[in-house]
Specification:
The protein is an alpha+beta fold. It has eight helices and twelve strands. The protein is globular. The structure holds zinc ion. The site of zinc ion has 5 residues, from loops.
């Protein structure tokens, strides 16, 4: 069997809330909450709401879709910072970029930390492995400026939280989710075709089940039944706290669509 070549992004999300005993500092409005904390603890960070942010590279697509959906302004207050202090690497797995996105929603007292990596030309089994280990024990090599450590994403998450909130009594246990964005899947340029020919493998990528090859097709289909998409190269599939997003925007059919739109 030929091995796959998949490129895209994977994001490990942690969400937690600040309980009602946590009070914002008097001098700071909830909208500004977090700004000083972030600036004081992270060397390379960009406030993506600020004038100075010309759209951090990794966030271009988030900004474009947010502006499209909400006409430049989200209907609720939030702070969002892109942190570039941490670089992740993993043996035998090509990581082209990594970064951390911290979003703070003061009105609902929720903080979201995303640990994101961009990968290139990896196999589906490697990705399934990554999904399995991520909220587990296997460690990435994490470079923090000059420092190098072996950390699981859970450990990295705890380090980030420690920098922001010293007293753990104020925060809830985190919830987690995983979003896998696939931008290239072998040479396919049509999601329907991928789902038809590689359905079990996609089931494996969605759920993290390394035994994907042995599941009955009906089960794979059942797990993938919640999905939506607008075009043959964009599709979103969800299962519990797993999200699989096909965004084949570099493929031939997408390029043709683009040309057609212009
Ligand atoms: Zn920026």
């Amino acid at each position: 069997m030929l091995s796959d070549s998949i490129s895209g992004n994977i994001c490990f999300d942690y969400y937690f809330s600040l309980n009602k005993n946590y009070v914002y500092k008097e001098e700071e409005s909830p909208e500004d909450f977090g700004r000083e904390v972030i600036k004081n603890n992270f060397k390379n960070c960009c406030d993506i709401n600020s004038e100075n942010c010309k759209g951090c590279n990794a966030l271009q697509e988030i900004k474009i879709s947010q502006n499209f959906l909400y006409n430049d302004k989200l209907p609720f207050g939030y702070g969002r910072w892109y942190i570039e202090d941490y670089k992740l690497s993993l043996d035998n797995f090509i990581i082209t970029h990594s970064g951390i996105l911290i979003s703070i929603y003061p009105s609902i007292r929720v903080i979201n930390i995303k640990i994101c990596i961009s990968f290139e030309k990896v196999t589906s089994d490697q990705l399934i492995y990554i999904k399995q280990i991520t909220f587990g024990d296997v460690k990435y090599t994490v470079y923090e400026n000059e420092q190098k450590r072996n950390l699981s994403t859970n450990e990295l998450f705890n380090i980030l939280v420690d920098k922001m909130i010293k007293d753990k009594q104020y925060i809830s246990e985190p919830e987690t989710s995983c979003t896998l964005e696939i931008k290239e899947f072998n040479n396919y340029d049509n999601i329907e075709e991928i789902l038809k020919k590689e359905s079990k493998k996609i089931y494996g990528l969605l759920t993290g089940d390394e035994g994907w090859a042995f599941v009955p097709l009906a089960l794979a289909d059942e797990r993938m039944k919640i999905h939506w998409g607008s075009r043959q190269f964009v599709k979103f599939i969800t299962f519990r706290n797993n999200f699989l997003y096909f965004n084949l925007n570099k493929c031939n059919s997408a390029r043709k669509y683009d040309v057609h739109q212009k």
